[in-house]
Amino acid sequence: MKILHLIPRFTAGGAERLVLMYTESLRKQGVTIVVGSVVGGGELEEKFRKIGIEIFVAPQRKFYRLLRVWFDLKKWVKNFAPDIVHTHVFGADFNGYLLKKMLGVKWVSTQHNIETSAPLWRKFVWKIILRSADKIIAVSDSVYDFCLREWRLPKEKLVLIKNGIELKPWLAVSSAELFAASQLRLAAIGRLEKQKGHEILLRALAELKIDWHLDVFGDGGLKEYLLSLARQLSVDDKISWRGVVLDLPSELGKIDVIVQPSLWEGMSLVVMEAMASGRVVIASQPAAVGLIENNKTGIVAPISAEHALVDALLRAWQDKDASRQMALAARDYAGRNFGIEKNLSAVEKLYQTLV
Length: 355
Fold this sequence. Notes:
This protein is about 45% helix and about 20% strand. The protein is globular, with a radius of gyration of 21 Å. Helix 8 (about 200-205) packs across helix 13 (about 305-320). Strand 4, helix 4 (about 90-105) and strand 5 form a beta-alpha-beta unit. The protein has 15 helices and 13 strands. It is α/β, with parallel strands linked by helices.
């Protein structure tokens, strides 16, 4: 079986990391996989190359040269002759649609998010092109419902395959130093974009009247704005902007609480990994749905509610014993429910129905 995965860039986003897990695992089962980007490169390029994967990296070109990228990609795909093209996120989906129409390939798309906040033109195009896909994978119940309700996709094309993670590196994170420091050690993990709610977190932290420090892992288009906002709120000296860190498990042993105040999510890999690492997770409702049982395996805060985030952070700090128990319960739940194996098995079975 020959599978081509298409992603926008080789950056360390959730969709891209999921493709890396597919690549590493399915190759061991005799599946031939190549991976291409349709927008540009990124920090995961070396990881794909290191495991011996052929990749296509679209040059970051201006709009008038995008046709050249398309012709190069089309030629690369024809040479590989995949049994299935599997796409992730809008840019890749659009190219999957073109490859389906022009080359007649089997096309699978994974929908990773609830796309209510996408521009109207993008939602209109997305809704049309996905009808040509052979199968559409939804990564959570909420994404599945969104695809039925908003995209109005045929039910027979939709498949629910919930996200999973590679548990081993996260379960190995030590809990020995959890809440052992004299200050509350926080982390926010994810792209610096509107979806992830960093602004809400910064405004909440400006009101938090205990000693704290925040590590921000990730990069994105809002970085300069967030740096400026942190200065305006007089919290810039309490924040370390770490950028993209590929070996996050080695960092999380020094963190007490991971905050995920996302405005929308599909099924958050960050929340799953944070729970598996035995950290206290405070997440917005969209980031927590289907993952966290409130006050038992984490804390769920109302979306965009800074005061609720402040209260949750204070609670986590002031009752450290309860917080440690919550972190242990989260790790136990993650270990029993979040493994990537079910996801991989379901994806491979789906491929087999199409070839």
